[in-house]
């Protein structure tokens, strides 16, 4: 009798273990389903927000391929019924758009290179060198970030006008060869390096310039990438200063050229939108390919370790 009772208890125990295992599997399946549901809802929300944010850009792309006859109607045409490339071709024939694009690349490229060089050198001085008034000078440099560009644009214009630099490439480039934001970015990055690194290099007979080129530059690629992306996009989208200091098509930039397209014809909205779509391609491409460097460079100097 006792053996039968023990066998029965064992069977009940085995069944209980099976039930627990089955219950555990059900709970795991429910947790997995819940997690997948949350992930799906997040993805759906992100897609919806992305569509709302990108809607103006997508509609501009649609207008660029749309004939003027389809745009100026009582109907709301979101997609072109007869897509055409005529707007893109006319944008190059109505104004020297290709020349404007080349000018913008020259200006943005030179400004980017100039700011990387000047800001990295200044940041090196504020980070590793010791001289009187370093803290006060750095505070003055940072204080210039609070001065809006519109407050100095008239004085800068009068200065370059007296120097006879109007309507030239130097007048587009020289006033923007350095920036307080770039100095701050590089300095914060350099502050993460121990002073013993610089002292060891000096003991080995390394000059300051060689220390920057051979040691700091390879270690600050993320900061350089972030600075390059940020500076190029800002220079590419610059409008007010090139509008003031340039007067001929040989030196005008692409942002001014797009505004000239709207003056060609009162019905040239599709023409202007086609030009806008073309000129935003470089800045968007640089941001897409350099966004990781931009984020890494912006946050790399925030934590010491």
A few lines on this structure:
Keywords: Cell membrane, Membrane, Transmembrane, Transmembrane helix, Transport. The chain is mainly α and 305 residues long.
What is this structure's SSE topology?
Layout: H1 2-64, H2 68-71, H3 86-94, H4 97-128, H5 134-143, H6 149-162, H7 169-173, H8 180-190, H9 195-203, H10 208-219, H11 221-236, H12 240-245, H13 254-261, H14 269-300
Please tell me about this protein's structure.
The structure is a single chain. The termini are far apart. Helix 4 packs antiparallel against helix 11 and helix 13 runs antiparallel to helix 14. This protein has 14 helices and no strands. With 305 residues, it is mostly helical. It has two domains: 63 residues; 215 residues, MetI-like (MetI-like fold), CATH 1.10.3720.10.
Low-confidence stretches: 7-14
Main sheet? none
CATH architecture name of the largest domain: Orthogonal Bundle
Number of strands: 0
Helix content: over 70%
Q: What is the C-alpha radius of gyration, as a whole number of Å? A: 30 Å
- Subunit organisation of the chains: single chain
| Global morphology | flat
List keywords for this structure.
305 residues; mainly alpha; MetI-like fold; 2 domains; 76% helix; flat
């Amino acid at each position: 009798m006792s053996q039968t009772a023990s066998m029965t208890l064992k069977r009940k125990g085995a069944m209980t273990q099976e039930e627990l295992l089955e219950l555990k599997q059900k709970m795991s399946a429910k947790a997995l389903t819940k997690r997948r549901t949350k992930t799906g809802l997040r993805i759906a929300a992100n897609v919806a927000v992305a569509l709302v944010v990108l809607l103006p850009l997508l509609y501009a792309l649609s207008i660029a391929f749309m004939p003027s006859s389809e745009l100026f109607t009582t109907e709301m045409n979101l997609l072109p019924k007869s897509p055409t490339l005529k707007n893109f071709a006319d944008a190059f024939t109505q104004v020297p758009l290709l020349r404007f694009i080349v000018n913008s690349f020259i200006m943005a490229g030179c400004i980017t290179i100039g700011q990387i060089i000047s800001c990295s050198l200044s940041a090196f001085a504020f980070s590793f060198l010791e001289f009187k008034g370093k803290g006060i000078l750095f505070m003055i440099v940072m204080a210039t970030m609070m001065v809006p560009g519109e407050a100095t644009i008239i004085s800068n214009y009068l200065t370059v006008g007296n120097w006879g630099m109007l309507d030239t490439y130097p007048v587009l480039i020289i006033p923007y060869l350095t920036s307080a934001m770039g100095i701050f970015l590089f300095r914060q990055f350099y502050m993460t390096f121990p002073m013993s690194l610089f002292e060891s290099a000096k003991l080995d007979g390394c000059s300051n310039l060689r220390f920057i080129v051979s040691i700091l530059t390879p270690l600050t690629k993320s900061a350089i990438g972030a600075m390059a992306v940020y500076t190029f996009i800002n220079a590419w989208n610059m409008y007010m200063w090139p509008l003031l200091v340039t007067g001929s098509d040989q030196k005008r930039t692409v942002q001014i050229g797009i505004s000239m397209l709207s003056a060609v014809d009162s019905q040239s909205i599709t023409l202007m939108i086609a030009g806008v779509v073309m000129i935003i391609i470089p800045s968007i491409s640089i941001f897409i390919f350099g966004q990781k460097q931009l984020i890494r460079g912006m946050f790399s100097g925030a934590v010491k370790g």
